[in-house]
Write a structure and sequence with these properties.
Elements: E1 19-20, E2 38-47, E3 50-59, E4 72-80, E5 87-88, E6 101-112, E7 115-124, E8 127-135, E9 142-146, E10 151-156, E11 165-171, E12 186-191, E13 198-204, E14 215-218, E15 223-225, E16 228-238, E17 253-262, E18 270-273, H1 284-287, E19 296-303, E20 308-315, E21 319-326, H2 327-333, E22 335-336
Antiparallel strand pairs: 1-21, 2-3, 3-4, 4-5, 6-7, 7-8, 8-9, 10-11, 11-12, 12-13, 14-16, 15-16, 16-17, 17-18, 18-22, 19-20, 20-21
Beta-D-mannopyranose (BMA) binds next to loops.
């Protein structure tokens, strides 16, 4: 793989195997019974017979939807019988602010042996930490581990592999960062107890993904298929010629979603990778009207018994959306990969 990244990626298209749900966005600020402005980047799982979503909620004053006026970020809870219509609980379920911690956000949910593990990002005064908490009721959360800075986008596999818990993550290596863009990759680590993490390996480099020139990292937690672990990832391309595209003066990045397949017994091995993006911002709610347009960020993926895969994704950092695809079609997109 070439080490140099292209300056510009150009036009991209979503794969025809993915269908946006006609009810999109499936959750937005107007559906939330407490102050809410941006509702997105949710984690979703099936738990005790229901679909459960923990979403990120960025709160701004009603008349000041501009950067710099953020009041707080909290995490809200929503449940659903069908995965499409959601009912939001009356209060946020998680918020972390203290002298050291500024906010917790971008939750990801994985059920392992009947308990829900929530990974989240934690902005602190001393860097960005990846957290893991466990809950049985979405009221009490026990924090199990916090990474050293800077790391985030962690997701846990739903099963132990070789007697270890496994997670994907995206650290922020300053060393290889250039002036014009980031250069962050997806990594994989394991743990005997969800507290001590190590045995870390590079999984997917930004140079491995033809539609990225800025960074790649985990998206929704992986699901097990007969061919191995089906895994989405986020891929970012930056074009320094892009200008205003949302609330900020300049927003030069585009977030797309990719798909890959990891070996069932050794998920450090990528066995298949789609060279084309799975989802590219195209729908009106993905390309306009948001705080940051042209952002698709999947945080939840559910494989139904029928073979339908539900993909939940934050759109334009503003609303939460749903897309579906057939698992066989997603697996077919993953072409053999070697570095
Ligand atoms: C990242 C995170 C995500 C967000 C993305 C696009 O750095 O803040 O929560 O979706 O940027 O703005």
């Amino acid at each position: 793989m070439p080490w140099e990244l292209p300056a510009v990626i150009g036009e991209l298209k979503s794969s025809p195997v993915v269908k946006r749900h006609p009810a999109n966005p499936v959750l937005a600020a107007k559906d939330v019974p407490f102050p809410a402005t941006l509702v997105y980047n949710a984690g979703v799982c099936k738990f005790q017979g229901k679909y459960v979503m923990v979403f990120r909620n960025d709160v701004y004053p009603p008349d000041k939807h501009i950067p710099g006026h953020l009041i707080e970020i909290n995490l809200g809870l929503a449940t659903s019988a069908d995965g499409v219509k959601w009912e939001v609980a009356p209060k946020p379920c998680f918020k972390w602010v203290d002298e050291e911690v500024l906010r917790a956000y971008d939750p990801r949910l994985t059920v392992v042996n009947g308990r829900v593990y929530m990974c989240f990002a934690l902005d602190t005064r001393h860097g960005l930490r990846g957290g893991i908490a466990v809950t049985d009721d979405f009221e009490k959360f026990e924090v199990l581990s916090l990474s050293v800075p800077d790391n985030r986008n962690m997701v846990i596999f739903p099963k132990k592999i070789g007697r270890k818990f496994v997670r994907l993550e995206r650290p922020f290596p300053i060393y290889s960062r250039s002036r014009s863009r980031d250069r962050f990759d997806a990594w994989i680590s394991d743990s005997p107890d969800l507290k001590y993490w190590g045995n870390s390996h590079l999984l997917l480099g930004v140079e491995d993904v033809p539609f990225a020139n800025d960074k790649v990292g985990p998206a929704a937690p992986p699901v097990l298929t007969p061919k191995g672990w089906l895994t989405l990832f986020h891929a970012v391309d930056r074009d320094n010629n892009r200008g205003k595209n949302g609330w900020e003066e300049k927003w030069q990045k585009r977030y797309t979603a990719g798909v890959m397949l990891l070996d069932r017994d050794d998920p450090r091995k990528i066995t298949g990778l789609s060279r084309e993006p799975l989802m590219v911002p195209e729908a009106p709610y993905e390309v306009s009207g948001g705080i940051r347009n042209h952002v698709i960020f999947p945080g939840g993926m559910i494989l139904e018994k029928s073979g339908e895969v539900k993909i939940y994704y934050g759109s334009a950092d503003t609303v939460e959306c749903l897309a579906t695809a057939d698992v066989g079609d997603l697996l077919d997109l993953c072409r053999p990969f070697s570095r």
